[in-house]
Amino acid sequence: METKGEKTKQLILDTAYRLFAEYGFTRVNMKMLCERTGLSRGGLYRHYESTAQIFLEILRKMAARQQDEVREQIAKKVPAKVILESLLSRYEMEMRDDKNSLSLAIVEFYGDSSHTKEDGFVKQSYERSKATWIELIAYGVATKEFMPVDAEAVFHVIVFAYQGVRLYSRLMDIEDDVSSQIVKEVKRLLLPQEERNEKR
């Protein structure tokens, strides 16, 4: 059962996520968070010292969630193509949802020289995501559900197409079929011909 402190922290993170998605990183401040959460300054600062600390926690939780979910499903022997469908469905939905993207906030945060890059979070997040996708692809190849492919190259197609759409969607209108084209191409790379035909 969640404690009151844990519920408050989650309220702060959920509220901050929405604000960062709407305004980017630089326009969000602790005063705004107090107003949106209904917390006093003391109540907010009891949990977090700065918007940077909050933002990094949001990013860390997001990175860990996908890896944990995929590993748990592999351990339960969920078919690789089912895991793939779930991930790609989520990615497609997120690419179409320009209102909830943190891409602009991430660029603002790491583009500001006052925020150190020494924590290496972007690189760590990239490596964690790559390890997750390589693990899933290796699992799918081992179960003969996926074609034998260069897993790292497929990961690069996925992550840079996904992040590119997420960032560009903050700067211009992106047609919905762009995300479905990307998903279709990823499936073409991974699934045998007969599997792709079944999905039509």
CATH superfamily: Tetracycline Repressor, domain 2
Distance separating the two termini: 44 Å
Mean pLDDT: 88
Number of helical segments with 4 or more residues:
10
Provide the domain count. 1
CATH topology: Tetracycline Repressor, domain 2
- Low-pLDDT parts are none
| CATH class descriptor name | Mainly Alpha
The total beta strand count reads: 0
What percentage of residues falls in helices of 4 or more residues?
Answer: over 70%
The assigned CATH architecture is Orthogonal Bundle
Oligomer: single chain
Structural class category: mainly alpha
Principal-axis shape equals globular
Largest sheet: none
Order of helices and strands: HHHHHHHHHH
Strand content: under 5%
The Rg value, from CA coordinates, equals: 19 Å
Organism: Dubosiella muris
Protein name: TetR/AcrR family transcriptional regulator
What does this entry look like structurally?
Helix 8 runs antiparallel to helix 9. The chain has ten helices and no strands. It is 73% helix and 0% strand. With 200 residues, the protein is an all-alpha fold. The mean pLDDT is 88. It has one domain (59-199): Tetracycline Repressor, domain 2.
Which helices and strands, and how do they pair?
Layout: H1 4-23, H2 30-37, H3 41-45, H4 51-75, H5 80-96, H6 103-111, H7 121-142, H8 151-168, H9 176-190, H10 193-199
Helix pairs in contact: 1-4, 4-7, 5-7, 5-8, 5-9, 7-8, 8-9
